[in-house]
Every structure is written in structure tokens, then in C-alpha cells.
Amino acid sequence: MDNRFVRISKFLCLVLRHKPETIGLALDEEGYADVTELMRKALDFGVVVDRPTLREVVEQADKKRFSFSADGDKIKANYGHSIPVVLDRQKAEPPELLYHGTARDSLASIAEHGLGLGTRQYVHLVEDENTAAEVGRRYGEPHVLKVAARRMHENGFEFFVAGGGIWLTKTVPAEYIT
Question: Which of 155, 144, 16, 3 is nearest to 80 (CA)?
């Protein structure tokens, strides 16, 4: 994606995952926003976005962060919310290992307490070590944690697929992390 699409994607993350009030956007209980209202309020905020651009951001994003309603009139973030929304998640059996990228500064706390929700509704894990390293770089010197996901699942922890190689769970106790 080019820089314009990256900017639009970051804007959508802000208003669909974290702070819809920034532009006065209303989300329904599932986190959907009316596309026409989103475009109008984005423009009032100084962000120009149209339906073809939204469609391209949704379809071309490698992490599948967003999706449209079946009729295309609404858009939502698929995961990563720090605001309460009801997510329609399908439980799934995870692969043997999943990965979590973090900063080296967080390792001591994670070793003691595991991975918790922080400001989000779920702990985010990925299928690919390189992606986890990219995520870790956002927070400082990256470190990739291996999570014994299948063992967790066998011990009763629920996992959900968010798409784009992203997996969600409510917590990861320290004993499942290396």
C-alpha cells in the first residue's frame, strides 16, 4: 500500500478501534460505522476518503484489519479494539505455536505475569515470527515470544481467528511463553 492508504488505514484504526469520538462517529454494538457518515465526518476532520479508497484499504490490507457489512453500507475494525464492542468470533483450534512481538523492556513483567489485555479486548498473537518482530519494533527493541497455543487450547483456553494470520485470546499465562 502507498503512503495515502497507510494514512487512511491508521485513521480508520483510530476511529474504528479506539476513538470514534475524535470525529463524532457513532459505532453500533458490533463496532460498525455507517460508511456515508464516516466519509462525511472524516472530511469535516480534514481526511478525504471515498468508497473506492475504503474498498481498496479493506481488500488490500495484509492484516485484514477492516471489513464491510454484507450490503457494503457499514465498515468495522475486525480486531484490536480498546473500546467495548461485541465481536462475532468463531472459536478455533490454534496451531502448535503462535508468536507475540513485544519490546525487551516488557520481558520481566511478561515472565512474571504473562500476557494480559492491556487496553484491548484480546491478546493478539500471530502465526509468523517476522510479523511478531515487526510488532515488537513499534515498542522498542523487539523480542519475539513463542506461545504454546495448542497446549493452552488443550488446557481449556479459547482462541479465535481474526483473519490475516491474527489470533485472539483473553490471556496467556507465563507458563505457556518462551
Answer: 16
